[in-house]
Amino acid sequence: MDQLTLLAEGFASAITLENLFFVLLGCLLGTAVGVMPGLGSSMAVALLLPVTFALEPTAAFIMFAGVYFGGLFGDSTMGILMNTPGQASAIASTFEGHRMAKAGRAPQALATAAIGAFIGGMVACALLVFIAPWLAAVSTSFGPAEFFALAIFAFIATSTVVTDSAVKGLMSLALGIGIALIGVDGVTGAPRFTFGAPQLLDGISIVTVTVAVLALGEVIYVATAGKYGVHGQMMEAKGRWWLSKDELKEAAPAWARGTAIGLPFGVVPAGGSEIPTFLAFGAERRLDARRPDPQFGKGAIRGLAAPEAAGNATTGMAMGALLALGLPISATAAIMLGAFRQYGLQPGPLLFERAPDLVWALLASFFVAMIVLLIINLPFAALWAKLLLIPAPYLYAGITVFCALGIYASSSSWFDLLILLAVGLVGFVMRLFDYPLAPMIIGMVLGPLAETSLRDAVQSADGSFASLVSGPIVLVMWGLMAIVLVGAIIAKLKGRTGLNT
What range(s) does the DUF112 domain occupy (predicted)? Predict the structure, then answer.
């Protein structure tokens, strides 16, 4: 089959000494940052963006992918050992994982998480080999109306469905779109929102915004709020790090079910891994309730296995949606989409035609990254927790220095440093008042696509907006959007009713 031949060629590129080094480096960085609560893979990718432009695109994206996957492996480590998940995607794993650790089964909990993430990621990567080219072929039938509907779908899902407050999510989204509009209008050539500053004619770089919001804003928040480090007692993780036959028998069905739940969410712009991990956890809890001796609440291995597999399955498929459709489903994927554009590449069907070496080397590197992450996490997960011994003031001071050096090195502009500080303060305020950051980033990345698609669709129909709702693909997308919105409203209403009762 063509895909297997292309994948073999991708492996030939991915396992070169140079690319193997970047796979390992990305996995190490991603795991290390994932262990640190409040940081996460999105911050790591944002910090790496300015310093990777000197690299060849293949090497850079292989490293980004390692960071993306490694962040998920690291996130669950602190959730299990300290009941403090690194990111929201690890919350579901924390419930039963920490109970296992408290019961003296921390090594088995870490092993369950590592194997589950490996299985979910490997299955997703295997499917990507066959699904990604098909998605790219399907997207060739997309016109301006379809891409506009796709962008709106992503906007609605990330700003209303997966946020606690739809109002805050929409305001964050509007801010991101507003930043994307700064600069010269590509159609009329007129400057927009530049306030007379010639430095803004080229717009504000996505690199500057992501570094400012995710890294500098977090540093300012931590410094002002005084929330250095993690509070709580770390569980000991001594003993066997492998699973017994009975434990494997117990976890295997949950790994399979979690993977099946996570896969579809990789191509749906629903905010990343948070929803599928909670769905997988909920499914296992309902199944456990039917057993003669329910284990949930006592450290059920299935309650940890399923969310871990679901999270990595979603992330793996998300890379396919990013490569084939140019659709980011999370903040980290949105930053990677911005990185593609910085290299002059546009994910989608043309990427498979114009840069097949990059695409297939990247797909092959996913498999390598899964193996590397299993090796460095299965027996050594507890060692990663030692990173918390780094004094927090030194850690965050180092992040600040990297923010400034990275932005100045990529642009050599003092004005970009002022923008970095200004947007960092905006990110601090958003963090302080609990405004979600992902809608802002996705709004900035997909805002130009939505604007261009809207203009092209209306102009091609002689000014008629009816073209936005004509055609089978468009109608299916708007229908899915309506279903997602109605489902979200019903779920939130049920949640409020449950709270009131």
Answer: 20-442
Contact 43, 33 (CB under 8 A): yes
126-158 pLDDT, tens digit per residue, is 888 888 888 777 777 778 888 888 888 878 777
Question: Would you place residue 175 in the very low, low, confident or very high pLDDT band (cuts 50, 70, 90)?
Answer: very high
Token pair 């396992």 is found at 15
CA dihedral 316, 320, 322, 323 (to 10 degrees): 130
User: Coil, strand or helix: which one is 51?
Assistant: helix
Give 234's strand partners. Answer: none
From 435, 54, 34, 410, select the one nearest 213 (Cα to Cα).
435
Name the DSSP letter for residue 183: E
- Cα–Cα dist 201/257, whole Å: 51
What is residue 84's predicted lDDT score, i.e. its pLDDT?
A: 67
> What is the DSSP-derived secondary structure letter of residue 87?
S
Nearest of 319, 300, 302, 279 to residue 67 by alpha carbon: 319
Report the alpha-carbon distance of residue 357 to residue 147 in Å, rounded: 26
Contact 242, 105 (CB under 8 A): no
CA atoms 473, 478, 482, 485: torsion sign: positive
Of 395, 380, 273, give the one whose Cα is nearest residue 332. Answer: 273
The rounded distance, in Å, linking the Cα atoms of 119 and 304 is 13
CA distance 32 to 9: 31
Q: Say what the pTM is.
A: 0.76
Give CA angle at 117 (115, 118), nearest 5°.
60
